[in-house]
Amino acid sequence: MTPANLKTLQEHLLNALTPAPTETRRLFHGRGRCWPGLEQITVDWLQGVLLVTLFKPVSDEVLDALRAMLLDLSNSEAWQTSQGHSLLVQLRYLPESPSEWLLGEPQDHWDICEHGLSYRLDLGKKQNSGLFLDMRLGRQWVQQQSAGKRVLNLFAYTCGFSVAALAGGAQQVINLDMAKAALARGRDNHRLNHHDLSKVSFLGHDLFNSWGKLRKSGPYDLIIIDPPSFQRGSFVLSKDYPKVLRRLPELLSENGTVLACSNDPEIGPEYLINAMNEQAPQLKFIERLENPPEFPDSNPDSALKALVFRRGRSS
C-alpha cells in the first residue's frame, strides 16, 4: 500500500460519503481485487462508525499513513455532513484481531439498520462484527420468500436470515449453530425488531449430531445453508458440504426451496451445483442471487455464491 493507493482510497471514501448511506453499507471492497495495492482493505459504514479492516500486515509507516488519511477524512465536509463520529481500525491479521479507535468513544455494541431491520454488532472485541454485509441481498430475498413458511436456518450465526424471515411473515424459524453466544445475539436481534419469539427456536447443537431432531421438527419449506468455509474441528466446506446436501430431501417439504451459500473464493458456483446434483438430484438449480453492487469482484466466481434450488413435484 503506497501513498498513491491511500489517495485513491481517500477519494473513494469521499465520494461514497457524499451523501452517506442512510443504512449500513460497505463503502470500499478492496478484497474484490479491483483496485491494485488495496486488495487487503475494506471499509464499512456503520451509520456513524467507519470500520476499516486490514487483512494482511503492512509496515508501521503505512499504518501511520492510513491513520493520518482517516483523520484527515474526518475533517472533510463529506464527513461532517455524514454525521460520522467514530473511526475504528481493525487488524485482522493479528491474533484476536485487535481494533483501535482513532476517533470517538469506544463502543462494545452498536445497533445498525439494513432494509429497515435492526441488528446489533460487536465492535472492537471480536473478529467479526455479527453481520456479513455481502449477504445483504440474500437476506432481502429470504424476507421476500418467507410468508407463511417454515424455515430452517443452518449455521445460523447471529440469525440474520431468521430476522429477515420473521419480518417476511415466516410461520416458524429454527436456527441451528454450535456457537451458543452467537445464537444469544440472534435473540437480541429478534428483540430489536419486536418479533414474536414463540415463532423462533435456537438450537446450539452440532449439525451432524442433530439430523433426528431436525427431522422431527420438519418438514421445512425453506432451508438456508450458509456455512463457514473452514471451522477447525467442526466444518470443512469441501468435505462436509456434501454431507449436508445429502440430507436435504428428508428435511424439505414438497416443492420446498433451498438457499445454499459459499463464501470460499477458491470454490466456484459449479461446485455447489454439481454437488447438489450428486447428493440430492431431486433439487434443481434455479438461479444465483446477485451480490450487492458495493462488492465488486474481478472474478465473479470468487465472490459470494448464494444459489437457489427447488424441489419439483415429480420428486
TrEMBL record:
GO terms for molecular function: methyltransferase activity. It comes from the Bacteria. Keywords: Methyltransferase, rRNA processing, S-adenosyl-L-methionine, Transferase. Its EC number is 2.1.1.-. It holds the Pfam family Methyltrans_SAM. InterPro entries: SAM-dep_methyl-trfase, SAM-dependent_MTases_sf. GO terms for biological process: methylation. Residues 25-310 form the S-adenosylmethionine-dependent methyltransferase domain. PANTHER family: RIBOSOMAL RNA LARGE SUBUNIT METHYLTRANSFERASE YWBD-RELATED, SAM-DEPENDENT METHYLTRANSFERASE. This is Class I SAM-dependent methyltransferase.
